[in-house]
């Protein structure tokens, strides 16, 4: 009896009295920290220590399905978890409800890491921008972005202390371009560290971007002789100084529309292109040189004049010329060429003014030396001049005929003159004189004619 009383007392003493059960029973949830990859599902075990629990369940806006249960627990499947949320697990025990909450953290490992270099080609001493961004990553506060130049860390950024709403997984820096940076590999590394939540360490890197740096401050210079000779191969060149990287400079050269084939070389900070031009038309033309490097392009134009060397052709300057004695003559010689050549002729070592017509005399016969010159050079030619009298060659026959004809004409006139005004005197002449030869007769006639004239008849 005493023993029973003691037990009752002990029970009363241990129990805090009415309402004590609510202090005693516990509600717990497993897991106690939930890290779910975006879009994945999660199993929840909600349990209690209440020996005979009343109504129970979980409160969440996520899609939930009860998959199993025991007397003191319930298991749920949560599907398509896309956002961070807080879940409540509750049990009631003897009319008293208790709950416990679970933070669900959604994570998204960095998969795509995008690096941009702007501009792709940057002028020396100008600033360029390196920008890295991760379109889809969570949670941001556990992300670290690192910009790398080669293997060297350029800049590092974490997102722990900034207001989440204002953030994007992005990092941008500006750098001044140095020559040494040319062709440097830039990359960006994203790290998501979830190890303290029982997750892992996720990392991903961007593709490598190569930075190009250039210097291009001058215009190309064309080297060409201002006199090009038609049809002749002439060396020309186009030079670009103070350029970097010189060996990547591209050249195009044109004479008018015709593109020239080039031989490109470089040394130090100078690049040049050599070509051979062959102009096929005389006159003013344009030689141009187009130079490009990365985003830069420059064109230089140079006027050229295409000339023709002087020529003394047989058609315009015959090597054999025949002059007729006593006639007005010019030395026939017209030079060809562009610009029009000047002509100088010498005769017996003396300059001969070939532009003045002169009366051909025997002593004009000889060899004349004519020289035509222009800016491109000069050419000489010997011209043999023969001065012929009228009795020479074929013309002498004609000359004889003309002389005979003239002679006959003169005699005829003489006879006529002798006959008409002096017939009386003539009739008085003795008959026998008629037998004298013609020469004597004409001589006589002339004498008579002279007499006649003397007598004013
Ligand atoms: C849920 O949790 C309770 C209490 O820890 C445990 O007894 C039970 O076996 C769990 N259920 C499952 C399906 O793991
Ligand atoms: C850049 O990266 C390429 C390919 O990964 C490598 O071959 C090259 O050597 C790197 N250049 C520099 C300057 O590190
Ligand atoms: C993620 O970031 C939060 C906030 O800075 C921090 O409390 C937590 O420990 C971090 N988790 C990991 C795994 O670093
Ligand atoms: C190119 O032309 C320049 C100037 O005309 C000359 O000095 C140089 O030797 C040439 N180079 C080559 C490779 O032909
Ligand atoms: C000029 O005449 C000479 C002699 O007749 C001849 O040998 C020469 O070939 C001629 N020259 C020309 C250029 O016709
Ligand atoms: C040609 O010769 C004559 C005399 O023989 C001379 O009087 C004349 O000056 C000469 N003419 C030339 C052009 O030499």
Report on this model:
Keywords: Cell adhesion, Disulfide bond, Glycoprotein, Immunoglobulin domain, Membrane, Repeat, Signal, Transmembrane, Transmembrane helix. It comes from Panthera pardus. Residues 310-384 form the Ig-like domain. The protein is mainly beta and 457 residues long. It folds into five domains: 23-107, Immunoglobulin-like (Sandwich), CATH 2.60.40.10; 114-215, Sandwich (Immunoglobulin-like), CATH 2.60.40; 221-308, Immunoglobulin-like (Sandwich); 312-388, Sandwich (Immunoglobulin-like), CATH 2.60.40; 406-457. 14% of the residues lie in helices and 49% in strands. The protein contains five helices and 36 strands. Helix 3 packs across helix 5. The protein is rod-shaped and about 190 Å long. It starts with a helix and ends with a helix. Residues 1-19 and 422-457 have low confidence and may be disordered. Bound molecules: 2-acetamido-2-deoxy-beta-D-glucopyranose (NAG) (6 copies). The site of one 2-acetamido-2-deoxy-beta-D-glucopyranose has 7 residues, from strand 3, strand 5 and strand 6. Residues 141-142, 160, 193-197 line the site of one 2-acetamido-2-deoxy-beta-D-glucopyranose.
Give a brief description:
The protein has 457 residues and is mainly β.
Topology:
Elements: H1 2-14, H2 21-24, E1 27-30, E2 34-37, E3 40-48, E4 56-59, E5 63-70, E6 73-81, E7 85-93, E8 96-107, E9 114-118, E10 121-123, E11 127-133, E12 143-149, E13 152-158, E14 170-176, E15 185-193, E16 201-205, E17 209-210, E18 212-216, E19 221-223, E20 227-229, E21 233-240, E22 243-244, E23 250-255, E24 258-259, E25 262-267, E26 270-278, E27 283-293, E28 296-311, E29 320-324, E30 328-329, E31 336-338, E32 342-347, E33 350-352, E34 358-359, E35 366-374, E36 377-388, H3 393-419, H4 423-427, H5 438-454
Helix pairs in contact: 3-5
